[in-house]
Amino acid sequence: VEAVHLIADGKAPRIPQPKEGATYEGIQKKENAEISWNQPAAALHNWIRGHDKVPGAWTTIDGQVVTFYGSALLDASVPPGQELVIKGALRPGLVTKSGLVVFGNDGKMVLVRNLQFEDGKMIPASKYFSADESTALELTEEEKKMAEDIR
Predict the structure, then answer these.
(1) What residue stretches are annotated with the Formyl transferase C-terminal domain (predicted)?
(2) 3 in a domain, yes or no?
(3) How high is the mean pLDDT in each 10-residue block of the chain (151 residues)?
């Protein structure tokens, strides 16, 4: 009660908190979340997961900023996949049926499940090379009639 009264009266002591030992890290900014590829796989995984969801760990692929989400360490043999050149990476990534496999400087692998492009579009990493493909919507005669009725 005494402390509350001191605060209410504006007489409570003000002691600045020392910076030493502080653990607070300020709000992360997107420009500081770029992936540095010259690290072991565990460090890459920690970086990606540590920036998942905000601000998102990112890299440049085909001249475009791509943000990685949902990583996991992969402890298996190298899966089959289509090579993807990633700017700054020591070796190309692999687009596999499970996602994008990237390699640390120790040769170990990290699996990334989702990718987001600069325009905000998010895709499963396994669909990277089929992201541009689109299929035309085919309507049956009944659906065409219903669409006309709605119009």
Answers:
(1) 29-130
(2) no
(3) 93 86 74 93 94 90 94 93 94 95 96 94 92 61 84 82
